Automatic annotation (TrEMBL):
GO molecular function: Kdo transferase activity
Pfam families xref list: Glycos_transf_N
InterPro entries named in the record: Glycos_transf_N, Glycos_transf_N_sf, Kdotransferase
Principal cellular location given in the protein's record: membrane
Domain of life: Bacteria
Protein name: 3-deoxy-D-manno-octulosonic acid transferase
Length: 434
C-alpha cells in the first residue's frame, strides 16, 4: 500500500511495512537501553513518539542529530538561527542518553529536547501529530526513510546539513538508484562539508541545484561550559603543577597515553595527566589501566582530590571538558590513534589550547590539515612521538603560544561562515521572523 507520497518505490514500501512490524521489539530495546542510563519511563516513551513536553505556539524548527557530535552541532546551529528568527521556537532530537544530557546542559533559549521517535510509521505519526514542525533539519547522515517522507508529507520543508556519508554507505544506496533518488528528492537543500561529499550526493541522485557548499558545523561549536568553582578548586589542588590533557580517548588509546606520560615523568616528576575518556562509563576499565601502568591516580567521579602529587587525574565524568581544557593549553585529542575518525578540534581551539592528534582524523580532515599547516596541531603515531610533542610544548613556551594563536585564529574565522549557513537554510526552508 502506498504511503501517499509520489515517488515511493517498492523498496520503500517494503521497508515501511517491515518497520511497522518490528516497531514494538525495537521500541522495547531502545527504551531498555535508555533505562540503563537512568532515563525516566516518561522520557523513554519519546522513542515511541509520545511527547513529554507541550508544543509551543507558532513556527517550530526541528533539528535532529543522532549522537553527541551531531546533536551538539544542532545546538550550535540553533543558537545562531534563534538570532535570525526571533519569533521561532526550536526542537532538538537525538537518540542517546549521553547526547540528551549534553544537549540539555547547553540548550539555547526557546529550545527543548526530546528523544527521536523510531523510524517506523506509528512512532513517527505520533511525533509529527504532536510537534507539527514547520521545517526539519537533519545533521550529517541521518537518512531515515519513514521519518523523512512522513515529515515532508506534512508540508514541512527538509534540509540535510553537514552531509557526511561514508563511501560504503553511498555505494549501498547507489545499488538502489530509484530509491536513493526518491529519498534525496525529499530535501529542499543539502549542505555539504566538502566537494567530495557533493559528488557522493549527486551519485545518489540528489538534484545538483539543491546541493550547496557548506562547512563542518562542528567548526562552529560554542566554547565549552566551565564550572568556575570546580575549576578553581582543582587548580588549587594542583598547586601550579604542570598539566597536560588527553581527552575523548577510546579503548586502545589510553595505553599509549599512559606510556607517554610515564616517559614524560622522568624529567618532570610533578607533571599531572588529566585523562578524560570519551565514554565516562569506561571509568573502571581505564582505572585498571592506570593501575597496571604503575601510576598513582585520583578519580573525578569519586570526588577524589588531585592533591598529594597524583600522577593521573581520571576525569571520568560527562560535560566537564571545558574544565580540563582550561587547566592546560596542551591537549591530545583521542579517536585518532584508533580507526574512529577523530573528534572535534574546534572545541580545543576555542578553549585557546593547542592540539595533538593521531593520524586517523578523516572526519575532520580539512580542519586538521589547516591546523597542522598553521602550526596549531601536531600529528603523532605512538607513545614516543606523543611524549615528544608534549615535551616540546612544555619546554618551548614560544612555540606553544604560536600554536595556541593559530588555533584561536582558525576558530575565529568560522563565525562569518556560520551566518552564511543560516541564511541559506532560512531561504531554502522559507523561514522568516514573522
Amino acid at each position: 500500500m502506498s504511503d501517499g507520497l509520489p515517488g515511493a518505490t517498492p523498496l520503500l514500501r517494503i521497508y515501511r511495512g517491515a518497520t511497522r512490524g518490528l516497531a514494538p521489539i525495537a521500541g522495547f530495546l531502545a527504551m531498555r537501553k535508555l533505562a540503563r542510563h537512568g532515563v525516566s519511563p516518561t522520557r523513554q516513551r519519546e522513542r515511541m513518539g509520545h511527547a513529554s513536553l507541550p508544543r509551543p505556539d507558532g513556527t517550530l524548527v526541528w533539528l535532529h542529530g543522532a549522537s553527541v557530535g551531531e546533536s551538539l552541532s544542532a545546538v550550535t546551529l540553533v543558537s545562531r538561527m534563534a538570532a535570525a528568527l526571533p519569533d521561532a521556537e526550536f526542537l532538538i532530537t537525538s537518540g542517546t542518553a549521553t547526547s540528551a544530557k549534553l544537549v540539555e546542559q547547553r540548550l539555547p533559549s526557546r529550545t527543548r529536547h526530546q528523544f527521536a521517535a523510531l523510524d517506523a510509521p506509528g512512532p513517527v505519526r505520533r511525533f509529527l501529530k504532536h510537534w507539527r514542525p514547520t521545517a526539519a533539519i537533519f545533521v550529517e547522515s541521518e537518512l531515515w526513510p519513514v521519518t523523512l517522507r512522513d515529515t515532508r508529507k506534512t508540508g514541512a520543508k527538509l534540509a540535510l546539513v553537514n552531509a557526511r556519508l561514508s563511501t560504503k554507505s553511498v555505494e549501498s544506496w547507489s545499488k538502489y538508484p530509484e530509491t536513493a533518488r526518491s529519498v534525496m528528492d525529499l530535501f529542499s537543500v543539502l549542505l555539504t562539508q566538502n566537494s567530495e561529499m557533493a559528488t557522493h550526493l549527486r551519485k545518489m541522485g540528489a538534484a545538483p541545484d539543491r546541493i550547496r557548499p557548506g562547512s563542518n558545523l562542528k567548526a562552529f561549536s560554542a566554547p565549552l561550559p566551565i564550572d568556575g568553582a570546580a575549576l578553581a578548586q582543582i587548580r588549587q589542588q594542583l598547586a601550579e603543577r604542570p598539566v597536560w590533557v588527553a581527552s575523548s580517548t577510546h579503548r586502545g588509546e589510553e595505553e599509549v597515553v599512559l606510556q607517554a606520560h610515564r616517559h614524560l615523568l622522568n624529567p618532570r616528576p610533578d607533571l599531572c595527566l588529566v585523562l578524560a575518556p570519551r565514554h565516562p562509563e569506561r571509568g573502571d576499565e581505564v582505572s585498571r589501566l592506570v593501575h597496571d601502568a604503575g601510576l598513582s591516580m585520583s578519580r573525578r567521579s569519586h570526588n577524589e582530590s588531585s592533591e598529594h602529587g597524583v600522577q593521573v587525574y581520571l576525569a571520568d565524568t560527562l560535560g566537564e571538558l571545558g574544565i580540563w581544557y582550561a587547566l592546560s593549553p596542551i591537549v591530545f585529542l583521542g579517536g585518532s590513534l584508533q580507526p574512529i575518525g577523530g573528534h572535534n578540534p574546534f572545541e580545543v581551539a576555542r578553549a585557546n589550547a593547542a592540539v595533538i592528534s593521531g593520524p586517523g582524523v578523516q572526519n575532520f580532515a580539512e580542519t586538521f590539515d589547516a591546523l597542522k599547516v598553521s602550526g596549531g596541531a601536531i600529528e603523532v603515531s605512538d607513545a614516543p612521538s606523543l611524549a615528544a610533542a608534549v615535551d616540546r610544548w612544555l619546554t618551548d613556551a614560544s612555540s606553544l603560544e604560536q600554536a595556541r594563536a593559530a588555533c584561536s585564529t582558525l576558530a575565529a574565522r568560522q563565525d562569518s561562515a556560520l551566518d552564511g549557513v543560516v541564511e541559506t537554510l532560512c531561504r531554502a526552508l522559507e523561514l522568516n521572523d514573522g
